[in-house]
Amino acid sequence: MSDLLVIEFLSEAKAEGVREMLLAMQKEYLIELGDAVAAVKDDRRRIKLNQLFQPVAQGAVSGMLWGSLIGLLFMMPLAGAAVGAASGVLGGRLADLGINDAFMRQAARTLQSGNAALFLLIRKMTTDKVLAALRVAGGTVLRSSFDETKEEALQAALAGARAASVEARG
Fold first, then answer.
1. pTM score, two decimals?
2. 51 with 121: CB under 8 angstroms?
3. In what order do the strands lie in the sheet with 3-9?
4. Would the CA dihedral through 18, 23, 29, 32 be positive or negative?
5. At what angle do helices 127-134 and 148-169 cross, to 10 degrees?
6. Rounded to an integer, what distance in angstroms lies between the CA atom of residue 59 and that of residue 42?
7. CA 73 to chain centre
8. In this predicted model, what pLDDT tens digit does every residue of 115-149 receive, in sequence order?
9. Among candidates 139, 144, 148, which has minimal Cα distance to 4?
10. How many CA atoms, within 13 angstroms, populate the side-chain half-sphere of residue 121?
């Protein structure tokens, strides 16, 4: 069973940095992510989702390639490419696994302009090592499906980072 975690950061760069850190930890088998998406709210109050995996775009390219090859067999490569791309887009939309885009856009509406939220779908993690790494990250937990003890430990780790950054400025 996966856990959902949404952390708000003061900038897109900070959210992207934490995502990169967690992806590096995934290579060390300290965390297993099902999805990691950064959502940013711009000055015009629009929400932009920075996703790692784009199944719709990849499906369109793959479908166009296969459609062209099949179309060549029937002497209609352009029609084959068009049909292949359309079917690839449809397949990509159906295969969009991970965190629901509509949910992320809805949750990101609560962000202040310029802030970013990091949406994480966590399958497994070595809690103590991941929390130790997040101590330097800062941020505020917006939503979590963790149990109470794990969520309190996460809140404490993030609060420690916020306190350290306030002391450094002062």
1. 0.69
2. no
3. 47-51, 31-41, 116-125, 3-9, 140-144
4. positive
5. 20
6. 29
7. 40
8. 899 999 989 989 888 888 888 788 888 887 888 88
9. 144
10. 15
